[in-house]
């Protein structure tokens, strides 16, 4: 349409007519005179609108799905991070609980023997220092640690300090073949010397070849002069085998140590010896023996007679068969 005076006049009239129809429709409400025309228009143009809507909806749905997928992925990633953090926290708590348990047990052992100890953590094992049975702990001269101090944990004797640096120290374990410690038997006070044998039980030579020793007897450290390198009364282990005496001057025992040398974590260095020998007071309580059940069979006289009669009957039947 060309832009003329007549076309502009027609446009103004159409706009004025549209406003007039809108006003009449609003004022008429449900009885609006243009309601029929609106319904007719809906009938004509409704299918077209539905078709357009159906064609456009998949695109909108796809956009929404992409948006929702991104949100779900972000939430899943967040949950995975939370779970990983939770697992790490639980793992850390388990390790801390284990360490607290070890520390508590060690403090009870130190309290029973009246040992003044400096707690330490094992930070390296012997492979880093050759192939001897040694560990490195995270305390040293700056913490008051000196050479030839006794090292223990909540189970018993761990070893002795051999080398000291400013902040670390090396400990020779009781399982090392070069390790020797004086021992005393629980109860009869028989003295001996225990030596390490690697991953095998400790070998103990009892000075009295005629000493009465049996499997299950227990040993503690005898102690050294001036309490270096060993303080007295530290649990060593339990006798697992006794060699026959054979008339020798000494007697050989094999002792399972209380300490597990391959799982060491928290240990204590004895920096102050007890005022007096604790003797056997640091040893753990003895396990209670498991009672062996006994079975008693009682036979009543009637049962015996019945068995006798049955035996006689069997004999008579056998004779009849032979005849």
UniProtKB/TrEMBL annotation:
Region (Disordered): 277-323
Domain of life: Bacteria
Database matches in InterPro entries: Cell/Rod_1, Cell/Rod_MreC_2, MreC, MreC_beta-barrel_core
Compositional bias of kind Low complexity: 293-303
One Pfam family hit: MreC
UniProt entry keywords in alphabetical sequence: Cell shape
PANTHER family: CELL SHAPE-DETERMINING PROTEIN MREC
Protein name: Cell shape-determining protein MreC
Annotated source species: Streptomyces broussonetiae
């Amino acid at each position: 349409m060309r832009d003329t005076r007549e076309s502009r006049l027609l446009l103004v009239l159409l706009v004025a007519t549209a406003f007039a129809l809108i006003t009449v429709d609003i004022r008429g409400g449900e009885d609006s005179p243009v309601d029929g025309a609106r319904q007719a228009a809906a009938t004509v143009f409704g299918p077209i609108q539905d078709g357009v809507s159906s064609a456009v909806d998949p695109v909108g749905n796809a956009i929404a799905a992409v948006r929702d997928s991104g949100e779900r992925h972000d939430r899943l990633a967040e949950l995975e991070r939370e779970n990983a953090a939770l697992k790490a926290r639980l793992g850390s708590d388990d390790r801390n609980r284990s360490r607290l348990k070890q520390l508590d047990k060690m403090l009870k052992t130190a309290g029973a023997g009246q040992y003044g100890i400096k707690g330490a953590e094992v930070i390296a094992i012997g492979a880093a220092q050759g192939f001897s049975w040694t560990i490195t702990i995270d305390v040293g001269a700056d913490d008051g640690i000196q050479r030839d101090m006794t090292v223990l944990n909540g189970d018993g004797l761990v070893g002795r300090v051999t080398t000291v640096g400013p902040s670390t120290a090396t400990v020779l374990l009781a399982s090392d073949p070069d390790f020797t410690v004086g021992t005393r038997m629980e109860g009869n006070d028989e003295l001996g010397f225990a030596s390490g044998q690697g991953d095998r039980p400790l070998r103990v030579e009892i000075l009295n070849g005629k000493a009465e020793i049996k499997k299950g007897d227990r040993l503690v450290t005898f102690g050294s002069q001036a309490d270096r390198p060993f303080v007295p009364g530290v649990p060593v282990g339990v006798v697992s085998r006794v060699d026959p005496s054979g008339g020798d001057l000494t007697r050989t025992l094999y002792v399972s140590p209380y300490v597990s040398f391959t799982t060491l974590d928290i240990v204590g260095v004895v920096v102050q010896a007890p005022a007096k020998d604790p003797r056997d007071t640091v040893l753990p309580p003895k396990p209670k023996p498991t009672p062996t059940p006994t079975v008693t069979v009682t036979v009543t006289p009637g049962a015996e007679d019945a068995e006798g009669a049955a035996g006689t009957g069997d004999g008579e039947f056998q004779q009849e068969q032979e005849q």
